[in-house]
Amino acid sequence: MKAVHFLLTLTAFALASFIASAADPSPLQDFCVAVNEPHKALFVNGKFCKDPKLAKAEDFFFFGLNVPRDTHNPVGSNVTQVNVDLIPGLNTLGITLARIDYAPYGQNPPHTHPRGSEILVVAKGTLYVGFVSSNQDGNRLFTKVLKEGDVFVFPIGMIHFQFNPGHVPAVAFAGLSSQNAGTITIANSVFGSDPAINPDVLAKAFQVDKNVIEKLQKQFWFGNDN
């Protein structure tokens, strides 16, 4: 009986190991639609690789992240993402860096990164930050007021935000665990989609009058990470 139990346990471990090793690669873009004819293919899941012998130092370099960004916009923040599009050498390395500038009382509105977790450090000023857990975890809000040198983590896929409660500018730097973590700003995606989501759907989802939804859909939604 012990031999049978041991064999079953060994089989279970073997299957788990096989499943783990056979998992599909993580997506590095919003979608990657398959094509049957290779000559019509336009994208790969990530970027094509240069011959390593042709790589140069500039492929791994970016300058100017010390320069303050313009925050004169509706949300009062500016996100500068240093991803694989700016540093080609990041391809396949699974990391991205970002500088975030905040005007006094500016914010990085509630958003998610579908393909990466984020770790943020405050370099200047004070930030009120937080994220909301999933429905299964009761939509719990985790918040903290961060000062210079403080660090906070936003798990992958969680809706999160940063707000500058001070009357002086703030600056933070963030690392993300993907070469293209993606950003979905909640208000922009829900009320500024193209074409617009049927207002009846949103009115029922948000439990408000349809006129409120139509008003929100008509206004301009600014993206601070363009």
UniProtKB/TrEMBL annotation:
<feature type="binding site">
    <location>
        <position position="111"/>
    </location>
    <ligand>
        <name>Mn(2+)</name>
    </ligand>
</feature>
<dbReference type="InterPro" id="IPR019780">
    <property type="entry name" value="Germin_Mn-BS"/>
</dbReference>
<keyword id="KW-0464">Manganese</keyword>
<keyword id="KW-0732">Signal</keyword>
<feature type="binding site">
    <location>
        <position position="118"/>
    </location>
    <ligand>
        <name>Mn(2+)</name>
    </ligand>
</feature>
<dbReference type="GO" id="GO:0030145">
    <property type="term" value="F:manganese ion binding"/>
</dbReference>
<feature type="binding site">
    <location>
        <position position="113"/>
    </location>
    <ligand>
        <name>Mn(2+)</name>
    </ligand>
</feature>
<feature type="binding site">
    <location>
        <position position="113"/>
    </location>
    <ligand>
        <name>oxalate</name>
    </ligand>
</feature>
<keyword id="KW-0325">Glycoprotein</keyword>
<comment type="similarity">
    <text>Belongs to the germin family.</text>
</comment>
<feature type="domain" description="Cupin type-1">
    <location>
        <begin position="63"/>
        <end position="214"/>
    </location>
</feature>
<feature type="disulfide bond">
    <location>
        <begin position="32"/>
        <end position="49"/>
    </location>
</feature>
<feature type="binding site">
    <location>
        <position position="160"/>
    </location>
    <ligand>
        <name>Mn(2+)</name>
    </ligand>
</feature>
<feature type="signal peptide">
    <location>
        <begin position="1"/>
        <end position="22"/>
    </location>
</feature>
<keyword id="KW-0052">Apoplast</keyword>
<dbReference type="InterPro" id="IPR006045">
    <property type="entry name" value="Cupin_1"/>
</dbReference>
<keyword id="KW-0964">Secreted</keyword>
<dbReference type="InterPro" id="IPR001929">
    <property type="entry name" value="Germin"/>
</dbReference>
<dbReference type="InterPro" id="IPR014710">
    <property type="entry name" value="RmlC-like_jellyroll"/>
</dbReference>
<keyword id="KW-0479">Metal-binding</keyword>
<protein>
    <recommendedName>
        <fullName>Germin-like protein</fullName>
    </recommendedName>
</protein>
<keyword id="KW-1015">Disulfide bond</keyword>
<feature type="binding site">
    <location>
        <position position="108"/>
    </location>
    <ligand>
        <name>oxalate</name>
    </ligand>
</feature>
<dbReference type="Pfam" id="PF00190">
    <property type="entry name" value="Cupin_1"/>
</dbReference>
<feature type="binding site">
    <location>
        <position position="118"/>
    </location>
    <ligand>
        <name>oxalate</name>
    </ligand>
</feature>
<comment type="function">
    <text>May play a role in plant defense. Probably has no oxalate oxidase activity even if the active site is conserved.</text>
</comment>
<dbReference type="GO" id="GO:0048046">
    <property type="term" value="C:apoplast"/>
</dbReference>
<dbReference type="InterPro" id="IPR011051">
    <property type="entry name" value="RmlC_Cupin_sf"/>
</dbReference>
